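Appendix B, Record 12. Input sequence as logged:
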Amino acid sequence: MIGLETLLVFVPIALALNITPGADMLFCLGQGAKSGARAGVVAALGIATGSFIHAVVAGLGLAAFLGAFPLAFEIVRWAGVAYLIFLAIQTLRSPSNIAAQHPTESESLQKIWREGTLVCLLNPKVAIFMLALVPQFVDPTQGSVFVQFLVLGTILNIGGTLICGLVGIFAGRVGQYLAKNASAAAALQYLSSLIFVGLAFKLATDRR
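Logged structural output:
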């Protein structure tokens, strides 16, 4: 099992990484601003689902495939860029009244969760990151490598989910306030779309 000494080193590093703004945090910010605080939290849960899948894949050693074959990495990366552009267009096409966009039905929240999961899964850098960081804290003499991978990946994921959820809630509260003003609501809609475009640009220009 993972030793206490390892956790005392890993947890602060994971926390520092989680509070660093990235694609996951910006996605939750955009969803919270567009559709409210609850949507921001659900988006964070979607990101968490994708991150957990990445941890499982990395633990099985399949993430090394993306690192070894540049073409596979590029295919996944550009699929992610295309999906983020699609989200940006969908945001612009939705009603400009932010208050009317708050998802009240489970189907709408499920859609946001799926979008968060896909955004995370289509970011190959998450898989590479899992493969680069977590193995440094895995000790084969302490039991199953796969189980240790999952435990450390879950710890990293929990911190990221909490922070992204708080960002989504904050964005949702601001969105509710601005929804009282039609011009501000429209501006917030464009801002949300711009965030998704910015994420697509970042993913498109990032280098491994």
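Residues 23-205 form one domain.
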